[in-house]
Amino acid sequence: MSTIIPLADVDPQLVEELLDAAFEPERRQRTAYRLREGIDCLPGLSFAALDDDEMLAGTIQCWPVALTTPEGRRVPMIMVGPVAVMPGQQGRGYGKALVTASLTAIDPRAPLPQVMIGDPEYYERFFGFSNAHTAGWQLPGPFDQHRLLCRTANPAVLPGEGMLGPWRG
Fold first, then answer.
1. Alpha-carbon gap, residue 143 to 130, rounded angstroms
2. DSSP 3-state helix, strand, coil percentages of the chain (rounded to 5)?
3. What's the predicted TM-score (pTM) here?
C-alpha cells in the first residue's frame, strides 16, 4: 500500500535521482522536456508515492502547457507526466496510484484537457487518454505521433492542429 503525498514535500534532489533511475540521465534530451522548459510543475497536481518503509517509490508531475493553433489561438492544457517509478518498485501499482491522484485533483468545475506522451493501450484502458484527436498536433522535437495522447470531457474544444509548448500566461 502506498502513501501519496504532495511532491512539494519531497527533496527535489531525491526526485531528480528517481527520474534518473527510471528514465536514465539522458531523459533531459527528450522532446517532453522542451514542452516544460522555463515553467514550474503544478504543485496541486504533482505527487509522490512512498512505499511501506516511507521511501520514495514514484513521482508524477503535471505542467501548464498550451496548444497554439495555426491562427495563433492558445488552448491551455495540463501535461501529465513524467510518471516515474523506481525500477525495483515497478509493477506494484505506484504509477497507477499517482496518475489517479493527479487526475482526481483536477478541478471538475474547469477541467482543462490533459495531454501526455505515453503508451496508448495502457493510458486509454485505465484513464481514458486517446490519440483520436491529436493527429494534427506537433511537438518541438521528435516524437511518436501515436503516443501523443489527450483526455478531455469535451473533445469539441480540441483544435485539430497546433503546436504544443509551455504555457507562459
1. 16
2. 35, 30, 35
3. 0.93
